[in-house]
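thread: overnight batch results

M.L. [08:02]
morning all. the overnight job finished for the chain we discussed friday. pasting input first so we're all looking at the same thing
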Amino acid sequence: MSELSVNHLLGIKNLTYDDLQLIFEIADQFKEVINRPIKKVPSLRDITIANVFFENSTRTRLSFELAEKRLSADVINFSSSSSSVKKGETLLDTVNNILAMKVDMIVMRHPSPGAPHFLAKHIKANIVNAGDGTHEHPTQALLDTFSIRSKHTSFEGLKVAIIGDILHSRVAISNIFALKKLGAEVMVCGPNTLIPKFIHTLGVQVELDVMKALQWCDVANVLRIQLERQQIKYFPSTREYSLYYGINKAMLDSLDKEITIMHPGPINRGVELASDVADSDHSIILDQVENGVAIRMAVLYLLASVRSNQ
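M.L. [08:03]
and the structure it wrote out:
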């Protein structure tokens, strides 16, 4: 297989097993590129990409922008906070105005679930979902699974625990879809109030005791508490959350095996992860950041290839 089965990256749910493997293979090649003295290739020299962010983002936006520039694309950055959206302009009008500038691809983050899917039905440009509300964050799941792949030989039978605020996390949902497609076993762990009621339908185990989750898993992907998405209090305080669900070095040392620690960032140090865990040999958090650029290069390159063959 040399081409994606989709024209847009809207979510992991839409991808096949072969799509995931193809993205990983291309990302392997781009990882070599970004570790060379000259980190640029002319692959997207004739492509213009707009980064359209209706929500604040630092890491994801910078990672996409770096990936686009490494591929020699022309880049336009759009932020809703300084745009006509503030004056009441609709999403479709905003994007059509951007497309009138002859943009080929749009990387979009939006607070409303389904916004990228809506756009994909109405415009001709390729859409990359950089996070839509609490729905999906496909490139984060791709870089997470790519990072696991570089650390573990196979996904078959691999046990991955996703720990933290599952209810508000688009990263958790996308990771579950990706890991299940690749053959891993998945467990979610967190306070009962932060576990979605539908989660069992995705074929995952649920554990409320963080120590039991750590004893079970080979990889722990630890999520932050998304206070900005919480309209009501789901637990008494961050101090209490840390007491029951925070992971420290003593906990890892008490295990009879070595597990891999991941985090999509930004880390609330001292809440979900102690610094001695985040900075330990168990952690591949900085690898995730590096892999994010390679994965996003692969996604943009493959979508551009689909576009040129249409």
